[in-house]
Amino acid sequence: MPRDSEGREWTEATVDGRWLRPAPAAGPQEPRWGHPDGIQLGLHPLTGPRGLLRLYTPYLGQPRDRLLNFIAVEPVPAGGTERGFSELERSRLDDVPGLRIWATDDPDDTRPQDPRQPSRGRVAVEDGVETLTVELLVEPFENGADVRVQVVFRADRPHEISLAAFRQPGSAELEACILTATMGNWARLRTLRLATEEVTARELWPRYTDVHFAEHARFGVDRLARDGGAVTVSAIPDELEPHLAEHAPGTKEHWYYVGVPAVQTWRADDPGPALVAQVNGRYTYWMSEALIPGGIAFENFEIVEPFRQGRVLTFSAEPLAQTQPHGQAHGADAG
């Protein structure tokens, strides 16, 4: 029987109709949902830090347990600027790093649940399209924020996932609740596609060579691409064959890219004037001094705006070759 990241046995998620969902069996279940051959969502204790949503993209040629990116939940209390960090805070429930996140059938029942006993999600038909909805509760943050995240998959859009943050009763009022894609360095995302221009990580931070995060670069709503009443912003790698890159000695193997490159995109309908897209960058991989092949790359990739209850943001990952001519990407620089 398969085992989770803590070595305990569980039953893997299974295909049920058109969806991948936790198995309808007794005992511990893998917390994983989505399209069998498309984008998928997973939670700890799947491999990786606690306090993060995992995004899997097997259609990019990646093994079952190799994820493309993480999504962190980072609420900001009203009147403040400092974020809570779902990955970095220490749990008040069991005193280990990372807040607990679990899937539930009843978002009004906030009692912590075993993530190995997840909700299977709710299947429905909306506007003629079948959907799978998963409700995720997040342990309350040190700053007083208490939020849940609703995840929706659409049967007609196998490469995208929609996420909406909700302020729970009793939570501190919120300035924002940022859902940030946190691991752009694995895919070595280096080009940001805006409305009329493309901006590269090297242009944004031409002299940055430290081991920390380069400061955020921000792009207002007027600089973002329009798609009807929505805005979009895409982060793109600059290598056609990232799996062939040469890594610095000592680079941990989990930083080696696997599969074909992809364009990662955030979409926001009905954008307000205060909406911004943000990226920061790293020159070395997280928690290491190992240089990133090709030089500095984006790490966190996000949309930030004043908090709106249930505001939906959509994240997608499309194979690079299907979204732009090959000539717009190239091999890694020596960096």
UniProtKB/TrEMBL annotation:
Q: Where is the composition biased (Basic and acidic residues)?
A: 1-11
UniProt-annotated stretches for the region Disordered: 1-36, 98-123
Highest taxon, organism lineage: Bacteria
Query: What's this protein's name?
Result: Uncharacterized protein
Q: Which organism is it from?
A: Microbacterium psychrotolerans
Q: What is the lineage of its organism?
A: Bacteria, Bacillati, Actinomycetota, Actinomycetes, Micrococcales
